[in-house]
């Protein structure tokens, strides 16, 4: 007796089915299994990138990631902007998204970009951004005419309030420069009697 007829006899004996019926049912079960299992993703494949993603795309996304890391690292270096006039400081009021947000207190300029929600456009304290804000902070005032560095007529309590703000800023933000006086007309050749007053 050949192996084939022995197998057929065993199948008939075990299943009670004719060989044709048995093989038809087995084939149908394989088809159903393949169809159903193709609808699911195995846990190992779940985290793999889609097969359709080419090697070029993978290396592109890796280099994008590296560029982001580089940009973050570069941006985290403390800036040093050095001497600046009040006029120059105004460029850092948030109107240019590529520039840091700066505030001056007692002539020291702080980079407050990390608190964009306070000092960025529309922020509750954005009126101080790009300005020397000592007087306003000392007086706890939002009045435009107080947003300047004039401390002449302030009393000891107000100066203490200002010192507390200074301590807070020194602790929280990097100093990136200091304010210098606007050049006086006499300092500039050919400026005649033009004045350099700053409106607030
Ligand atoms: C109704 C009065 C006020 C309320 C309820 C208030 C509330 C707040 C709150 C909740 C913060 C966030 C604090 C933090 O998370 O560190 C804050 C920050 C600040 N406030 Fe006020 N504030 C008031 C008045 C003022 C006034 C009058 C000034 C100055 C003129 C001022 C200047 C500031 C500044 C500069 C910051 C940001 C400090 C930083 O950079 O961390 N606030 N305020």
TrEMBL record:
It comes from Morus notabilis. InterPro entries: Cyt_B5-like_heme/steroid-bd, Cyt_B5-like_heme/steroid_sf, MAPR/NEUFC/NENF-like. This is Membrane steroid-binding protein 2. One of its GO terms (molecular function) is metal ion binding. One of its GO terms (cellular component) is endoplasmic reticulum. Its main location: membrane. The chain crosses the membrane at residues 12-33. Signal peptide: none annotated. Keywords: Cell membrane, Endoplasmic reticulum, Heme, Iron, Lipid-binding, Membrane, Metal-binding, Steroid-binding, Transmembrane, Transmembrane helix. Belongs to the cytochrome b5 family. MAPR subfamily. Residues 84-180 form the Cytochrome b5 heme-binding domain.
């Amino acid at each position: 007796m050949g192996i084939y007829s022995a197998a057929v006899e065993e199948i008939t004996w075990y299943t009670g089915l004719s060989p044709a019926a048995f093989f038809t049912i087995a084939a149908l079960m394989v088809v159903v299994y393949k169809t159903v299992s193709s609808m699911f993703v195995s846990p190992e494949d779940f985290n793999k990138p889609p097969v359709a993603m080419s090697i070029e795309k993978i290396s592109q996304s890796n280099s994008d990631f590296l560029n982001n890391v580089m940009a973050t690292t570069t941006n985290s270096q403390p800036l040093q902007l050095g001497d600046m006039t009040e006029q120059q400081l105004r460029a850092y009021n948030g109107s240019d998204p590529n520039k840091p947000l700066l505030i001056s207190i007692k002539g020291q300029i702080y980079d407050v970009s990390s608190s964009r929600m306070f000092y960025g456009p529309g922020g509750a304290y954005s009126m101080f951004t790009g300005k020397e804000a000592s007087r306003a902070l000392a007086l706890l005032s939002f009045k435009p005419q107080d947003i300047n560095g004039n401390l002449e007529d302030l009393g000891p309590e107000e100066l203490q309030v200002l010192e507390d703000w200074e301590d807070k800023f020194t602790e929280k933000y990097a100093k990136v420069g200091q304010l210098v006086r606007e050049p006086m007309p006499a300092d500039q050749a050919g400026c005649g009697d033009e004045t350099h007053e700053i409106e607030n």
